[in-house]
Amino acid sequence: MAFFVPLATVIAALAAWFALRRALRSVEAIREELSVVSGSRLDRRVPVPRSRDEIAKLASTTNETLDRLERSHEQQERFVADASHELRSPLASLRTGLEVALAHPGRADWQSVARRSLLDVDRLQRITSDLLQLTGDRPLSTELVDLSDVVAEEAAVHSSLGVGPRVLASVEIPAMVRGELGQLERLLRNLIDNAVRHADSIVRVRMDARDPDVVKVEVLDDGPGIPVHERERVFDRFVRLDDARARDGGGSGLGLALARDIAVRHGGTLTIEDSAAGARFVLR
User: Which residue has the higher pLDDT, 47 or 18?
Assistant: First the structure.
């Protein structure tokens, strides 16, 4: 009996050593694969052991994290490329106009040159401002805001211009929400600006505050509308659809992306839903 006790101990120790060695072999394989992951090699994935133990779970979680990292990296590269393209156009226009004017100073209409240059500068300012807003991560204030006032004010601003499609607002008072007034104003302004650019004759802004927990705002235009399969793409940055709703020179290409970002940061949603005519943006 005294002989079997040490033997059992040795066997248990050997079994534990082999099990640990096998586990460490899997950990070493994971470590080796992770060591070659870099910004240019984000497609690499670690091997997942056939065992269903914690190491296999760790490997699976690591691969899921690498998947998210690769997608984020691809989105960032596309965003930088698109942003560079959008900034290049007004810069090129600005430079060309100034170079032509300087090459022929006696024939240049300097007032016209200054006006065109100011338009290009305004566009650059809008793009950079929107980019900073989308990349920022500062906390929002939680003041109590009457959304009906915001809707009515933004609609009145467009109506007072006296040009382009009419903007009609139907609001319910009050519609109290918690958020940052300036950001909510920008959200509504972007939605109405987008609707005005694509409407044929009229834009309607409707608000429903009957549900005490949810305030719904709808912005509808009577333009060409947005195909169902494109309804999510329009919220991507710098996305262009077909010629019927192509982004014209008046937008930065970031307005809808920024509007959704503000809505989500306020705990809400912004979607495009079915409409009898035109596009129907629904904010909740």
Answer: 47
Distance CA 155, CA 203 (A): 9
Q: Give, as one character, the DSSP assignment of residue 164.
A: S
Cβ(219)–Cβ(195) below 8 Å: yes
Domain boundaries, the chain: 1-136, 143-283
Which residue is listed with tokens 């933004």? Answer: 154
- Which is nearest to 281 in space by CA: 217, 190, 230? 217
Under the banding of pLDDT at 50, 70 and 90, the label for residue 221 is very high
CA distance 268 to 99: 48
Question: Does 68 score more than 50 pLDDT?
Answer: yes
Q: Domain 143-283 falls in which CATH fold?
A: Heat Shock Protein 90 (3.30.565)
Q: Is residue 77 predicted with pLDDT exceeding 80?
A: no
| CA of residue 183 relative to chain centroid, distance | 15
Cα–Cα distance, 199 to 271 (Å, whole number): 18
Q: Which CATH architecture has domain 1-136?
A: Orthogonal Bundle (1.10)
